[in-house]
Amino acid sequence: MAATVILLFPTTQAVLKAEDLLLEGGFEVDVIPRPAGTSGASCGIALELPAALFVQAEKLLTAERVAFTRHRPSPGGRRKVRARRARRAATGVGSRLAAGAGPRRSDPRRGTSEG
Questions:
Q1: Which residues of 12-51 are buried (b: 16+ CB within 10 A; e: fewer)?
Q2: Is position 29 within any domain?
């Protein structure tokens, strides 16, 4: 499978404009759901394109003043998160519920949380 790059956008209009510009420029792009756990984009959709075309796509979008960010997944991604959660669940480390503390409740009068 060829390496791909995911571009995140602040609005749906920005995604649609970028898609039109890239398709007119001859780029291969796919509209995909925004990856879970990504921040910095309030739009629920993203664009995916081959990594080899990223530099040219970046130049085109920047010239047309389309705001975007490149999604950079962490190495190991979900596998690392799942392993960390499994370790914590097994040892009870880092879990308030494992210690019997219960969930936190906010107190709007004091602007703090009780726990």
A1: eebbebbbebbeeeebebeeeebeeeeeebebeebbbbee
A2: yes
Nearest to 32 by CA among 15, 51, 50: 15
| Domain total in the chain | 1
Locate 63 and state its tokens: 């010239």
Looking at residue 19, which CATH number applies to its domain?
3.30.70.1530
Alpha carbons 45 and 49: distance in angstroms, whole number: 14
Arithmetic mean of pLDDT over the chain? 77
Q: What is the pLDDT of residues 56-92, one digit of tens each?
A: 999 999 999 999 888 876 555 556 666 767 777 777 7
Q: Which residue range forms the structural domain that includes residue 47?
A: 4-71
